[in-house]
Amino acid sequence: MRNTLAEYPDYSAEIEALDNGGISAEGIDVKLLYRIINKHKHNARYNKKLYSRYKVNEGGVPIFERTPRFDAKEINNRINNDFFGEIIDFKVGYFAGEAVGYSYSTTKESARDTGGDKAVEAAGKVLTDFVTRNNMYDVDMEITKFSAICGYAGRLFYVDESGNERCMVVEPFECIVLSNAEVTEPRYAVRYYKTKDIHDKTVWKVEFYDNTMIYYYEGNLGNLAFVKAEPHMFSYCPLQIIPNNKEMIGDAEKVLELIDSYDKDLSDCDNDIESFARAMLVFENLGVTKQQMEEAQASGVFKFFTGAANGKAYYLTKDINDTFTENHINRVEKNIYRFSKTPNLNDEQFNSASGISLKFKLTGLETKCGMFEAKMQAAGTYMFKLLAECWGRHLKVEVDPLQCVMDFKRNFPLDVLSEAQAAQAMINAGLPKREAYSMAFSGIDDIDYVMQLIEKEQNGIPPLFDDNDEPGGDDILAGENNGGDGK
What we know:
It is a single chain. By secondary structure, this protein is an alpha+beta fold. It has 16 helices and 14 strands. A hairpin with a 5-residue loop joins strand 7 and strand 8. The longest helix is centred in the C-terminal third of the chain and has 33 residues, at 363-395. Mean pLDDT is 87; it is low at 469-487.
């Protein structure tokens, strides 16, 4: 369970120190850099454990570390039920399974603020090129995954060797953002990670970012040495954090104890079955040798004579209250899904639901996704501001960051028939087609584009009759109308 030390730290004092002459040509004071990293280590350590649990590493899942309660030779099954991974993957698939739509607004206001229709077209192209070049679909999925696991993810912008603006995901236990406002709007940032040199010696690398420069350090975390400083080609700090929510906690953190309880209960049940092999053979008032038992195991038959002691052999089975055990496990499972706000796809009621009732069952999940979408929008606003300034300076392309649009769509099964009936009902009630289509059809991303296609389709089909013609006339058979010879 996350304690207060493992929460994301407050860096107000460090920001003040950096603002008041804490940065020079040779970077920042190493002691201040140590202080920043040391403040983050508890949060980083806890997030590493969460990520290790998601990967189902032996040291990451508590049940794998369980030891026998009494005897070291006691049977000790350790069964992992990966509810943790299911909670994360369900959120990722539902929220980021459909790619986020990145586009540049084509409204009159956009043309006015950007500099005309040609400027809008140029701005849309550089934005599309950036999205395609960086495969933002993959970037957004990884950000969603790490945010759901650890409570936040890092996103770093840089310029590659070809001069193109690039974007990469930074693991949450390797990035620190110092901000006076939201962590999506960094003032300073630190990326630190360990690697191996050519002699397989562990080396820590630290990068400190401000609005214009990157300062590089290497060595041990207790003995870092300044290496170099270079411009990062942007006018704002290029490393930001995208939080999962305001508290910066993961989706499964509130049900970790429930998951561990489920693992322990199921492992104990498996221990009971295996330790007694479901039943034990009892010899009452009989002297049976080890050789006789081995022969019986081979042949399946015991031969003995009863005397005055009236001996007998029978199986002894353990009386297990399976109803209590099953009810307890079911209750724990329901609470895991309930308190993590994750739909249970094995629930019969969930499988039988459709349409509006199905969406109501997804309310809890949608609440989580709505919180994260708001944070993604905030992070996107900063991203577009950073990129727009860079494009204007390097590519001479005018881009208004407030006209860059992010369109989110949930990976939800479409109920086309119900949506079509709803749209028709709205139109019959007098609602304009544009509004009806926008409200009813969840599969439509760009309603303006759809209306343009409808208009082109209507204008592209010539009328069958002229105003003065009647059905059955000869004009429709004329050669000039159908391209034939008129016969």
